[in-house]
Amino acid sequence: METLNKATMEEMLSTPNRLLVGAGPGNLDPRVARALTLPLLSHLDPSFWEIMDSTADLLRQVFRTENDATLLLPATGMAGMETMFANLIEPGDKALIGHSGHFGSLMVEVASRQGAEVTEIQGPEDGAIDEEEFIEKLDSDDFAVAATVHAETATGTFQSVQKVAAACQERDTLFLMDAVTSLGGMDVRVDDWGVDACYSGTQKCLSIPSGGSPITFGERAMRKVRNRKQKPCTYYFDIQELMRYWSGGMEKSYHHTAAIPLVYATHEALRVLLEEGLENAFERHIRCSKLLLEEIEPLGFKPFAQPEYRLPMITAVTMPEGLNAKDVRTRLREEWNIETDLGLGEIAEKILRIGLKGYSAQPRNAAYVTLALSTMVGAA
Ligand SMILES: Cc1ncc(COP(=O)(O)O)c(C=O)c1O
User: Are 339 and 16 a contacting pair, CB within 8 Å?
Assistant: First the structure.
């Protein structure tokens, strides 16, 4: 087993070379790894500002939006969630939050801490909320915002949102969406669907190290921000303050010291993705998850999510008779150098989550994981 030991630490830092196919970070495209090592620029260097502007343009293409307020937050996906609610909730606002798993529940927590009066609508953990029911609930009160998670990483389930988003557009309700796991791996259309604010994370289907959260706010959302009675109770995540630094052109002013290499990596990763083409990338994710399931289901690894709600980038499976998920995960890491994840919350030890996403979504990785799992069946 490759682990870090004291001797290695005292020499040069080295880490095991894992195949990262869990729910967290994936492996990096060599072009992205190279971008991380480019010479540092200052966060106030006009040459860096050009890279920022270009990164924001690439983000707009991936979010499929024209939103001016589109940027890379220098913090992880949860920062995207905090930013969205901190700016778009005023104390006492009514919020409708739809959830079917761990990250949807976190939305309830984060929105409540901003002073929202939250109404929850809960879907099954192996499925999603029926959109008609979501809309019925929307009509039961005067909601300032409605929010949900597009791709629930905790269970590998997908929530369709288009009807709910359209219904919010017809009402005075902002529609807010978590696209941490979906962006770059499946269709996300911020403008066409009428998503008022949306955030993602760098480490999922975008295949960038963790530490960044792409975020976009539309005009309806920015109007709400401008008309707030009080400023958001955060300076760092105040979207208007952030935009003073991220606004296009050479009029930028200091807000924070950008995570320079992460911006380089984001720029390169988005170029890699757009060169492949979004539709081709989505199709690759579907192909890899199909390939994996076709091979491991006959071995007894059963998909956790109902067929119509399965995510292509996170395949959650229960174990065959005689195996438990915790041991399988450990053996995959120790014997095969493969990183996977257990579930989150109550179902934690019932499921194994295999994330063929971003650069890691390659048929050869599906085949390697299959081979590793096949050696454990019947030989437990
Ligand atoms: C759907 C979803 N939302 C939010 C987050 C939080 O992102 P982070 O762990 O990068 O803060 C995650 C992380 O896995 C996620 O899967």
Answer: no
Cβ–ligand 1 distance for 210 under 6 Å, the answer yes
Check if 183 has its Cβ closer than 6 Å to any atom of ligand 1. Answer: no
Residue nearest atom 7 of ligand 1, based on CA coordinates: 77
Question: For residue 379, what pLDDT band results from cuts at 50, 70 and 90?
Answer: low
Structure tokens given for 105:
């529940």
- Centre of ligand 1 from the C-alpha of residue 201, in Å: 7
How many residues are listed for the chain in this entry?
380
Task: Please check the confidence at residue 380 and state whether its pLDDT lies above 70.
Answer: no
The finding on whether 76 has its CB within 6 A of some atom of ligand 1 is: yes
What pLDDT was estimated at residue 345? Answer: 80
Catalogue all structural domains in the chain, each as residue range(s) with its CATH number: 6-27+278-374 (3.90.1150.10), 30-274 (3.40.640.10)
CA distance 56 to 270: 10
Which residues, in sequence order, are CB contacts of 307 under 8 Å at separation 6+? Answer: none
Phi, psi of 208 (to 5 degrees): -125, 150
pLDDT at residue 279 greater than cutoff 80: yes
User: Is any atom of ligand 1 closer than 6 Å to the C-beta of 199?
Assistant: no
CA distances from 59 to 183, 262, 358 (A): 10, 14, 16
> Strand pairing of 213-217 and 117-122?
unpaired
Q: Is the pTM of this model over 0.85?
A: yes
CB 181 less than 6 A from any atom of ligand 1: yes
- Residue 260 CA, distance from chain mean position: 21
Dihedral sign for Cα atoms in the order 62, 65, 68, 74: negative
Per-residue pLDDT of 133-148, as tens digits, reads: 999 999 999 999 999 9
- Tokens 């993602």 correspond to what residue? 200
Neighbouring CB atoms inside 10 A of 154's CB total 27
Indicate if ligand 1 lies below 6 Å from the C-beta of 180: yes
Closest among 203, 215, 211 to 357, alpha carbons compared: 203
- Written as one letter, the residue type at 145 is V
Cα of 180 to ligand 1 centre, how many Å? 6
Helix (H) or strand (E) holding 282: helix 278-296
